[in-house]
Design brief:
Number of helices: 20
CATH topology of the largest domain: Rossmann fold
Structural class: alpha/beta
Shape: elongated
Number of strands: 19
CATH class of the largest domain: Alpha Beta
Largest sheet: 8 strands, mixed
Distance between the termini: 94 Å
Helix content: 25-40%
Strand order of the largest sheet: 5-6-7-4-8-9-3-10
CATH superfamily of the largest domain: P-loop containing nucleotide triphosphate hydrolases
Low-confidence stretches: none
């Protein structure tokens, strides 16, 4: 009877990952000591989420122990089930190597001598693979430009630091196609955020809205797990606070408004003292990216951002959904209808008697840069945006004319540079469009002032353009609804030489930033050349 009881207890441990980890898996803790792996509160939350969902997405602050959890769970699945095929994908070679070394150490420390015939031995130990005698294997690979898992099927795929993968859409699609179709197969993603212009951001936002098969879990910097994880750092921060505040500990009465919000959401005073301590050596944006308090805050991009990223993210979390084709089909001009959802976003219909102001940035229409139009009402509310990289100049002029006349003969500030000049000529000569921005210039020969259609962008005038736009946006004088505009504002930076533009990289643009900034100039000039 005693033997059966012992065997049943062992089986209970083998069937439960948290119990298996607590009894059989060892890790190296923050003090460099080998200890048994007892799941922290966030890891237990993730375990529960994975037990209920095949597709799981974890957005997190740093050092939450999710990678350790994943490696340990991979080993548990491999040694307690036959023919498991598990793939762990990391974004660079050193992190992949570190994960694999952690996996091998955990496997080496399994008590095989104490429990003979319980844990299968390793049949093959390659550079990036453990293959067990029960037919199960765990492979650790680096994400590359090639498809993940091609030519094989997996019972579990875990993607570590996914937001830093190249070609995220392709990698995720290929991973999903490589997943076994059984009910026990799983695909998990865990990563810190990396801005908003990537697949991870889109997937996370869709998940939050309930529009994705992925279930998202977020781990803020003040999660219970960090009380133990950062205990030493918290002690150090509290000591510093006392030394610089006449021996006093931080109190609720001492909290700044932003700290009070964090406190009300669950951040205790030790977390807030630690936050102040970290902010001695890093900017708020850097802290929010590394240690976010909410999922939107995690997407802040660090660097020489021109726009206040906390305000940008606040808008991204509260933007209006553009009107659908069905909602506009009876009202939108025919030439515009085909662009609904394909570059044209209408947020509000034109109102009788309202004045509208637009900015226009023109590209060639051959791919690459985008032709953009941003339209605001006189109160600063964005009502429409248009962006397209395949619209030729002559057709873009027709679209500008159509939108302008629909919105009560909108006043346009059109960038004159490059392809903007032929657009201006077509609007004036072919469409007789009169409500256009004119720039005052001095004739260098005569010294006389002259009026020139359009806005000529120079190094000096661009500084004014962006500075005015930044002020209007950050003071709340304009309200942007266009998601793509806000995402471009996340990538809009000032370089070391003082020039401003989009952060370099594939699919990084600033065309909507420019057209929105031109809209502000249209309002600022205070002119109106037609009756409405």
């Amino acid at each position: 009877m005693a033997v059966k009881t012992k065997q049943s207890k062992l089986q209970k441990v083998l069937d439960s990952f948290p119990l298996f980890a607590k009894n059989f898996i060892y890790i190296i803790d923050n003090n460099g000591e080998k200890v048994k792996f007892e799941l922290n509160s966030a890891q237990l939350e993730l375990e529960e989420l994975m037990n209920k969902n095949r597709f799981v997405n974890v957005s997190k602050a740093r050092q939450g122990g999710i990678s350790t959890f994943s490696v340990a769970k991979a080993l548990w699945r491999a040694v307690t089930n036959d023919n498991e095929n598990i793939l762990i994908v990391s974004y660079k070679s050193d992190s992949s190597k570190a994960l694999f070394e952690k996996l091998k150490s955990m496997n080496d420390w399994l008590p095989r001598e104490k429990y003979p015939n319980v844990f299968p031995n390793v049949r093959r130990d390659n550079r990036d693979e453990l293959f067990f005698e029960n037919g199960s294997r765990v492979t650790c690979l680096v994400a590359s430009n090639k498809s993940i898992g091609r030519g094989s099927t997996y019972s579990w795929i875990h993607m570590s630091e996914f937001s830093f993968f190249a070609k995220q859409e392709m990698q995720l699609l290929s991973a999903e196609q490589s997943l076994m179709k059984g009910e026990k197969s799983q695909l998990t993603i865990e990563t810190t955020s990396n801005g908003t212009s990537n697949m991870f951001y889109r997937l996370t936002m869709a998940s939050i809205k309930g529009e994705s098969k992925y279930k998202t879990m977020f781990i803020p910097f003040y999660h219970d797990l960090y009380k133990k994880q950062f205990a030493h750092d918290h002690d150090e921060a509290e000591k510093y606070h006392r030394e610089t505040n006449k021996g006093k500990r931080l109190s609720v009465a001492d909290l700044e408004p932003d700290e009070k919000v964090l406190y009300d959401n669950g951040a205790n005073l030790r977390f807030l003292m630690w936050r102040r301590y970290k902010l001695l050596d890093m900017t708020l944006q850097e802290f929010q990216q590394e240690y976010p308090s909410n999922i939107l805050e995690s997407f802040i991009s660090t660097g020489n951002s021109v726009f206040d990223q906390s305000i940008v993210l606040s808008r991204l979390g509260n933007i209006k959904t553009p009107l659908s084709k069905n909602e506009v089909k009876d009202d939108v001009p025919e030439i515009l209808y085909k662009y609904i959802g394909k570059g044209l976003s209408i947020f509000y219909f034109p109102k009788r008697g309202q004045r509208y102001y637009g900015g226009v940035d023109t590209a060639s229409g051959g791919g690459g840069d985008y032709s953009t139009l941003s339209l605001f009402d006189s109160e600063g509310q964005q009502v429409l945006s248009f962006y397209h990289d395949k619209v030729p100049v002559y057709l873009f002029a027709e679209i500008i004319d159509c939108i302008g006349r629909w919105y009560n003969y909108a006043f346009y500030a059109i960038e004159r540079n490059s392809y903007g000049l032929p657009v201006l000529e077509r609007l004036r000569k072919d469409y007789n469009y009169l409500n256009l921005y004119k720039q005052k210039l001095f004739d260098q020969k005569t010294g006389k002032k002259k009026m020139q259609l359009g806005f000529t962008t120079t190094t000096q005038s661009k500084s004014v353009l962006i500075t005015d736009f930044k002020e209007n946006f950050e003071k709340g004088l304009i309200n942007i609804e266009c998601k793509e505009t806000l995402q471009q504002m996340q990538l809009f930076v000032e370089s070391a030489n003082g020039s401003m533009g989009n952060k370099k990289g594939e699919k990084n643009h600033d065309d909507l930033v420019i057209s929105s900034a031109l809209s502000v100039q249209a309002v600022k000039v205070g002119k109106w050349y037609v009756d409405i």
